[in-house]
Design brief:
The complex is a heterodimer.
Chain A lengths: L12 H7 L1 E5 L3 H13 L3 E5 L24 H8 L6 E5 L6 H8 L3 E4 L4 H14 L3 E10 L6 E11 L14 H13 L7 H20 L10 E5 L4 E4 L29
Parallel strand pairs in A: 1-2, 1-4, 2-3, 4-5
Antiparallel strand pairs in A: 5-6, 6-7, 7-8
Helix pairs in contact in A: 2-7
Chain B lengths: L1 H12 L18 E6 H10 L11 E7 L7 E9 L16 H12 L4 E7 L10 H15 L7 E6 L4 E7 L2 E10 L11
Parallel strand pairs in B: 1-3, 1-7, 4-5
Antiparallel strand pairs in B: 2-3, 2-4, 5-6, 6-7
The chains are: A alpha/beta, B alpha/beta.
């Protein structure tokens, strides 16, 4: 018996886990759950990227923190809380788009994204597609009426974005309209509704997705690129329409491509 | 012109004693990584499988650096099997025209693509480059890389179960950690 004997069903996937580097972008409600689970799984290295400081309104959703931690960097806090497990954890107090964030994305076997907004999702996915790194994105939207009490919809999704496969644009999790709306909602200053239990559900499925894709523990059982969560009917269902090769990120365009300067015609 | 430079470089590099080739085990704390989709590995296995006509078929894996900032992470973007006209008679298992290789390299560099020379040894476990392979890696792929900072050049060796990769860096070759990336759901058959 060893410490991983109750995960032996993962077979050779266990050695994959031990040798893997995983990056979690976002140390909030969703990202803290993912980081906790990835650390418990015993991956080789875990980078937690978030440049935000913990606020008192985060404490009821971010696992592993308390009110005494308010004001500290989320990435540092999570790295400390889960640092006693076998996984080497690195706090990256930076945005995904920063040079440091990009370096971690490029050095990863899998990247998780648990961020607010379509623009941030789009940026992370673009970096992952460029470096051919699988990206698993979670998101939750709780829509309330003007009275801030009546719930009109609770929807979430887990998108597993593999090189060549369907992307966030294919799944319409990122659209031009949503990117534009990000900015409007940010300017309006209305806080997103979120709750720890639903964040945790999506985070768990995201980690299951990583295990399914990378360890192949359930061959023959398809993992769909997109799984939708409905918090009112308490269901998670695959979206069978999100499939096929991705027209937005063809494999051929991965990596760094020169953009030649435009030739200016002589006057 | 480039061909002539290559010949001079090959002459210069040729007599140097063989350099020990670093291996690409994860324990080496590899500075270099190659991310290659599973489907391209399958494609490479297909096109480098020995046939009656060709005992050791060759291919190029088309690769780029992952980003402008990074010269350590490579991504595989396509497979280019050697056509019949690329092969020439010679003493090794497979002999190819360096003029042809230079033409291909020049063509690919326009889209920032470099080349990894690929062949297969069969069997299981981590394959090892032979002495002839190592000389080719140094003289040919090393010469292609000479002075080119925007595209990576090197070699990739397949067994039936594993992949070994080297990158030409300056006057030497470095081990590369190969990460086989799932690009379709439910299929990741290669350990590398």
């Amino acid at each position: 018996m060893n410490t991983q004997s109750r995960m032996s069903f993962l077979g050779t996937g266990l050695s994959w886990l031990r040798g893997a580097t995983v990056t979690v972008i976002g140390g909030g409600g969703g990202g803290s759950h993912i980081a906790q689970q990835v650390a418990h799984l015993g991956v080789g290295r875990l980078a937690i990227a978030d440049n935000d400081h913990l606020e008192d309104t985060n404490v009821e959703r971010v696992v592993g923190v308390g009110y005494g931690d308010v004001g500290q960097l989320k990435a540092d806090l999570l790295a400390k809380r889960f640092g006693e497990l076998k996984t080497t954890i690195v706090a990256v107090p930076a945005r995904a788009e920063s040079p440091e964030g990009r370096r971690w994305i490029e050095q990863s076997e899998v990247v998780f994204g648990a961020v607010d907004g379509a623009r941030a999702r789009n940026n992370i996915e673009r970096l992952c597609r460029s470096a051919l790194v699988p990206y698993i994105d979670i998101g939750l939207t709780i829509q309330v009426a003007e009275d801030d009490v009546t719930i009109s919809a609770v929807g979430g999704q887990v998108v597993t974005s593999l090189p060549g496969g369907p992307c966030l644009w294919c799944a319409e999790v990122v659209t031009d309209d949503l990117i534009l709306r990000d900015r409007e909602e940010y300017l309006a200053g209305r806080p997103d509704q979120q709750v720890i239990s639903m964040n945790g559900l999506l985070a768990s499925q995201a980690v299951n997705g990583m295990l399914a894709v990378m360890t192949g523990y359930a061959p023959g059982f398809p993992l769909y690129a997109m799984i939708r969560y409905d918090g009112l009917s308490h269901t998670m269902q695959p979206d069978r329409f999100v499939q096929g090769p991705c027209p937005h990120y063809p494999l051929e365009v991965a990596g760094w491509r020169y953009v030649l300067p435009a030739r200016v015609a002589a006057a | 012109m480039i061909g002539a430079i290559l010949k001079v470089l090959a002459w210069l590099f040729g007599p140097t004693p063989p350099t020990p080739v670093p291996v690409s085990e994860p324990a080496d704390a590899p500075a270099y990584r190659l991310h290659v989709p599973c489907s391209l590995i399958h494609q490479l296995r297909e096109v480098t499988r020995p046939t009656v006509r060709r005992g050791e078929p060759l291919a190029f894996l088309r690769v780029r650096f992952a980003s402008e900032d990074s010269r350590t992470v490579l991504v595989g973007v396509g497979v280019l099997p050697f056509p019949d006209e690329a092969y020439v008679p010679g003493p090794a298992g497979a002999n190819f025209s360096t003029d042809w290789a230079v033409d291909v390299a020049n063509e690919q560099i326009g889209v920032n693509v470099g080349l990894l020379l690929v062949h297969a040894h069969g069997g299981s476990g981590m394959p090892g480059f032979s002495g002839v392979d190592q000389r080719t890696n140094r003289t040919v792929m090393g010469a292609l890389a000479f002075g080119i900072e925007t595209s990576p050049y090197g070699a990739l060796l397949l067994s039936d179960t594993h992949v070994r990769c080297l990158l030409a860096v300056g006057r030497t070759v470095m081990g590369v950690k190969v990460v086989v990336v799932p690009d379709r759901f439910g299929e990741l058959l290669v350990t590398a």
